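Explain my protein.
***
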Amino acid sequence: MLDTDERQRTAFNAPGLVLALIATFVLVHLIRTLWLTPQQDDFLLLTFAIIPELYDAWFSGIPASRFPGGLAGLLAAPFGHFFLHANWPHVIMNALWLLVFGTPVARRLGPGGFLALTLLSAAAGALAFMALHWGAAALLLGASGGVSGLMGASVRLIYADNLPLTAGLRRDMRTVRPLSFWQALTLPRPRMFILVWIGINLVISFIGFGMGGGINRIAGEAHIGGFFAGMALFGLFDKPRRGQS
């Protein structure tokens, strides 16, 4: 039987901001599928999804005013694409992933640091995708780059004190002394986790897993970019706490 502290640390009693983000994913997709016309939904995607072709055109001198969302859309898309998803399985997958890896980071950083790290990781994933597909008429949307950043950050918490993954996920993250970025790269357990994660996403990117045309392809490159951004930037938002082991 779990004591009070252990019950508070379960993913099913996740911090409010994690649950609020999941609710936002669901609400946005409901609005898109039930209330927006196809033309309105296309405008939303062209404004807030990442489309490398548009950025290439902008950098080539085409005025931003000629694009659907204008300059505001181009600047907002690295963050806005986080809230858009291709279909319900995409929503559910990212919601579960956020629940597992966002919960420990949210408990550690609090709402402000958690949200900032998530959105910066999403932007880093978008930049990685654009760098590898510059000028392409490709489209990136979904929370996975940002959630990958939370996974990268959580590696520094979960594997502290050389604990295995399952035990690390159950601990009280508020009192953990996190690994440094370098330790996460070099200690055996976190290093193996990272290598497996990179390998899976390289395979996904190479074979185009999930391709069903257009936005249904899983963007492994965005996952990797977001992951390392979250792992590297975590320390900027983390503050030493009393009782750290």
